[in-house]
Amino acid sequence: MKTLLVLRHAKSSWDHPVSDHDRPLKKRGRRAAQRIGEELRELDLLPDVIISSTAKRARKTARIIQEASGCDAEIIKTGDLYFEDVGTQISVVTNGNDIYKRVMIVGHNPSFEEIVHELSGEDIVMATATLAVIDFDVESWSAISQGRLRLVLRPRELE
User: Fold this and answer.
1) Which of 14, 73, 130, 138 could form a disulfide with 143 if both were Cys (CB 3.0 to 4.6 A apart)?
2) Is 103:74 a contact under the CB 8 Å cutoff?
3) What is the extent of the structural domain holding 94?
4) Can you tell me whether residue 22 is helix, strand or coil?
5) How far apart are alpha carbons 18 and 147 in whole angstroms?
6) Per-position DSSP letters for 50-81, written without gaps between them
7) Are 92 and 100 in contact (CB under 8 A)?
8) How far apart are CA 39 and CA 107, in angstroms?
């Protein structure tokens, strides 16, 4: 079985005149990412690897999740999760190493809502720091298609 954790980056700040790619997290976003990381630890849903968009807000979200969960998973950064088409973003997972049973991707909307729909058939709203957990009854990432949406975590609902 393979499990995909789809995490939209935490709330970012528009307070500084920087490019979209370089927007930092807001304090609220850092707290939300912390809470999701803690919940992943409590639920024993730690990823084996974290693949993040290269955007600053996604990279920081991934690091906070890693630290808050106590997870020692490597964080891999890729531009393929930064506003590329959904097919390209899904290929980040389907081309993944089969030694990983649980993979987390950290990126952006609207494509992450589309990815969840494409891979589970479910329509969910992915507000910032929302996590969707999708299970696939396969042994290889290249074989994933329609999975089962097991869980959706939203920071607001965890407080």
Assistant:
1) 138
2) no
3) 2-158
4) helix
5) 38
6) EEEESSHHHHHHHHHHHHHHT---EEEEEGGG
7) no
8) 19
Q: Helix H segments across the chain? A: 27-42, 56-69, 86-94, 111-120, 155-158
For 63-111, the pLDDT digits (tens) are: 999 999 999 999 999 999 998 899 999 999 999 999 999 999 999 999 9
Residue keyed to tokens 């998973």: 73
Positive or negative torsion for Cα 112, 114, 120, 123: positive
Please report where in the chains the tokens 């190493």 appear, as a residue: 97
Encoding tokens for residue 110?
């609207």
**Predicted pLDDT at 159:** 67
pTM of the predicted model as reported, rounded to 2 decimal places:
0.96
CATH for 126: 3.40.50.1240
